[in-house]
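Researcher: Re-running this chain for the archive, since the previous output was lost when a drive failed. Same request as before.
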Amino acid sequence: MRAFHLLARFAACAALITLLFSVRGADAAPSDEQRSEVRDLKVEIRKASNYLKQGKVAESTQTVKLVLERLQRLEGVDPELQESVDQLFGALAPAHAFLELEGVTLPRMRNAAVAEPMMMTPAPGAPAAAPSTLPTMFPAANLSFTKHIAPILVARCGNCHVNQARGQFSASSYEVLLKGPADGVVIFPGQDGGRLVEVIESGDMPRGGQKVAPNELAALKAWIKEGAKFDGADPKANLSMLAPGAAPAPMMRLEVASASGNEKVSFGRDIAPVLVARCISCHDQRNPPGNFSLASFQRLLRGGDSGAPVMPGKPNESLMIQLFKAPAPDRMPRNGPPLTDQQIKNFETWIAEGAKFDGDAPESSMQRVAAYSFAKNATHDELAKAREATSLAKKNLGLPGVAMTTSDRKDVYVMGTLGQDANDEFADQAEKAADDVRRILKAPAGTPLVKGRVTLFLVKAKYDYNEFSKMVERRDVPPTWQGHYWYDVTDAYGVVQLPVNDAYDLDAMFAQVIASNYVASLNTPDWFSDGVGRVVASRIAGKDPRVVAWSNDLPSAVGAMKKADDFVYMRLAPDQNGAVSFAFLKSLMGRSSQFDALMMALRKEMPFDQAFAGAYGKPPAEIAKAWVASGGR
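Model: Regenerated structure tokens:
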């Protein structure tokens, strides 16, 4: 369902951008290398768009960022190339615009269609308003709306209530201000107080980091007490015309700050689960109250109609804390009991420590951030228990109505369709394969191979295998595949279509998906973990038809590469990328001392690129280029 909503919104963005960009025919003649880069970028831009259509915001974000970096390197290189660069910027614009609507912070596109603020000008023949800046001193009596009050309202409230009507309240003109919102008037001329004064005195307004100074509030109250009179030419004139020199201060824009790991409160562990449990049912991404969405950390920072929800370092001045502590009916969350004192204290500490982020990606869903943090911090047994529940949910989504039995082992949790006795036999077979993986990859004995265990979904029919991938993973797997792995910290599983008449070696298949999950759990890229899994399968059964097919497919897969490191950046079709990764890892793992050093460094949590360069002397892409140049030796 999320993918459907993203697709619909993305299509709307794409249609709008198409109207804003004109595409010209290209008659440039760039170099062969530049032509290749343009072709590659076209593919990457299509990939970014497809990710969005599948609901994969994080993947699209990463792709868009990389495309922008590469486009900027082409910018201004050659006048004849510039037209192609312009077209690529235009093609990238829909995905870029949509992601920004989702709250993702991206580098600015140099020719993206951006609406500039519209300046209001007097009607023809009307006298120009005298410049009016925000006063620093006010008289005790005889306050002027145009000289004193309008500048205050524009400077302190202009972003939300002069230029917009957030919360259904507009102060765009004197007439509209006096009329008030649908809830009732906010100013009572000749009287003390009123709703406008009350929300300022309480600190509830203005939001977004703005403050009304004490002398400004005193002037506003004195003007109301004196009758809230208008002394301009047109009570319908926009306040920005009456006070053009008192521009509203920019709204606070929060940026993602990464946690150091020394914080007392973790966003993923302590904050995100509360937001998911108590807040996100209302404040999701579909028409949330106050336009405040908690669909992701990025969206949280973006705020809503009331501006920034938190002021890093200042919990008492943060709107979120104020609303958590407010009396009913203003208290948040509105539904259910208030947050506990400890929960509110955690929010206060998190804000006081800088409102920092410690999840996998700021654009990930809030549910994903909470699940990711749980998986990182849980014990093996806690995560294994949780994965039993999430595995059942995946089965119900991907294979509804299909009866499955379960078998519990040390390293694997098996769900199969062939009955309990057969499932137990498969579980024993898979557990033996896990021991083979531990031996081949020299994994430590006596500890779980993968934290939380690997779930194996075993199906008999090709239709069930394909349907699981479509419904759970939102993708179509290659028709030649009969099994694959999936690892993303929160999940670790393999899906296997059981062989008919010994069509392939099941021991090798089990070892492959378990090995790939194990290597992926060491924070390695997909091409590497996939390649290692395939090499492990080849060592279990070197003559297995699947293994033979990978070797046979290598020439055509290499022929599909435009650059020697294409498979490292996952630019090939999945089956082609797998064939090249298999051959490359077969070469790397043949240098056993270097591969062992790499695996040892990964187990010590060294970043992959650093560990790889330490073991093989150069980064993966450079080693890949040398390997291709040598003919795969």
